[in-house]
Structure prediction request, 828 residues.
Amino acid sequence: MNHELAAAIAAAGLVFDCGAGGSVHAEVAIVAEAPGEREMQAKAPLIGNSGRFLWEVMRKEGITRNHVYITNAVKRKLVHASESLDASPKQAKLALDKQEMAHWKHILWEELSRLPKLRYIVALGGYPLQMLTGETGITQFRGSVFPMKIGDREVQMLCTFNPAFVLREPKQEIVFRMDMGKLKRVRNGTFTPPRIDAQINPTFDEAMSYLSDLHQCDWPIAYDIETMSGETACIGFATTATDGMCINFRTQGTHTYTVSEEREIRVALQQVLANRRLKFITQNGHFDASWLWFKDRIRVHGHHFDTMLAHHLLYPALPHNLGFICAQYTDQPYYKDDGKEWRNNNDIDTFWRYNVTDCCITYAAYEKLEVELQEQGLTAFYHNHVMKLQPELVLMSVGGVLCDGELKQRTAAELVDGVAEARELCQTAACEALGVVDYQFNPRSTRDLSRLFFTDLKLVGRGSSTDKENRDRMRAHPRTSPAARRTIDAINAYATESKFASVYANSRLDPDGRFRCEYKQTGVMSAPGRLSSAQTMWGTGLNMQNIPERGKGMFIADPGYVLSYYDMAQIEARFVAYLADIPTWKQQFELARLQPGSYDAHCALASEMFKVPYEDVPTYDFEADGRKTIRFTAKRCRHGLNYRMAVDRLATTTGLSIIEAEKAYRLYHWVTPEITVWWDTLAALVRRDRGITTCFGRRWLLLERFEESALDSIVAFEPQSMNGDHTASVIYKCHNDARWPRDARMILNIHDANIAMHRPEDGELVREIMRGYAEEPIYITSVADRLAGRARRDELIVPADFGQSVPDEHGVHRWSTIKKLKRQQVLA
Prediction:
């Protein structure tokens, strides 16, 4: 740092621990956040681990340390949370106060203004972003390029994450590299932010003419809706990446059109969106299609391309929101805050332009994503599975499931007293465990539970968590007294009652008395392909994939209809048998398929593990007195230990003692040594290929450096994703089957199971069609064969177990009244 800059810093009354580096005559300035310990010692910026990583990345762009000017936004070491008694443990570093921020900002601008050839700035982290642009939120703005003036010179600033953050969060490495890759294009002039022509506030005639012209489009059309106060505020379209129209139904305080004009526009919208010749592009199209259908009775025939789903298929571990996709695939600066900040400026036209920008950015991203899918060999899987599933999930979301409103209301009322009683039992149990007359705590308060468990009862768990897993761990600890165990039991019971009351019994129904949910195709990060569900986008319903048994009675078939159900029998364990190439398992599972009801693969595993004749293994999981059978233990081992579960976790999830869990763990791996071989082979495959592709065509990528901690997600990926993709595919295959009854439909997905609603006379046909697709052969190449380059494939047929609802005493068919069918009854 030169003498004038040092004098300016001293005049500001601030102490600096680290100067600048590189060349003052460089065109590029690198601005990091603050010096670390190594930088303090050497009085030079970016020389520690984060610096080594940065220069490794920049060398690929043809830039070395000597080519740039290097400095920090803050010229002193920041106090970290671990060094401050007042800081939150989750806080990475303490925020600067406004006065110090202003001082460092002034000095940074002065410093940069003295660089005679400066043309480009790379801002690494939140402090440089804030000091140079006034914006906050590096996660949102990373990847953006800002034109700015430093002194009398025009400068372009690229912002991205601090390299130290990337080292702490390895999955962000690919994001960082993508951002830094823009620097080359900024420098050579090929970085060109788009100029979007947004037509807003169209007249009735302009809107109708635009919609009429859309019918003639031979190229894709991007569309997007914006909502306001529970209504559709506007719908936008774009036929290129640079121009579009927003048809807004409202202005500030008034309607844009007359009632008759709006009716005509809505009819024209339905005609456009129902035109099967047109190809529509969306971002999170499930939202738009479900909202339009449910709220406006406008039904979209289907989407050709969804940028969120395409990005999820390509990069399942990265975020998939449009802001992230925009930064990755376009030169558009971050703009997503425009969708909210228009209110602060009282300028609703900003909102309408934001809508068109969304459409144009979606179009631009589509053009890049389509090419990338082709280059990666994922186009067929994307269009033939991912996009084929989306309209069926929209149908399931909008169709919903009828609720027994009287039962729901009665259950909610009963739970008021039940929850209060469960809470009182918590207090009583705690008093008994502590030997006191009065002890008050809130069983929903993490702070109160932490005080009770660790300060007052002095229980031993893993760390200081008070969640259910650690409560079970504390309960199983040999030092936990019987009274303390009863306290934990009471707290667990209260948590169950409270959750059931708030989530299930008190969930909001739609006005037509139906439960609904939003099915998410990107919802399970650890198992891409597996569906998740949540409340609808309009705030009703609930997650319908995790309904407890006592809540299933609320879900009923429409009058005159019944329910048919199937689930895939031990599907993930069967996948593991073939992926790990375990001959014994393959033989046992095939026997169980061919001899349903008379041969059980879990019993066979228990027989091997515990050296008990197969005939002597119980076919049930619990004895009359509640004791767990060896079949239960074997089954739980198979479901958990396949995925690298440790002994203590096995104990807490099964209720076994640590000694019992240790014995089961050793026996399981002794009789199935192929499991650990599979893990090692899978690790070798991922190291070589940097990813895995399932037999269905879904891909998982290793975005970070390979570490032992990544192996858990690697091992779980194939069995769980294959389960999700296979089970979900049955939905659209059934709905698209010409034999499927017109008024039958799938109404629920529960991970490895689906429930259909149909008329009683169609039961045999519906179950026949479901069985045909559920039990289609699956061809799997083991991990060892893939690593060795062998193309051998084994055929696997996973059997499906079926059930059908029976009427209750009032003739109502409920989810809770589904009875399992024997195989010979399924088609009878």
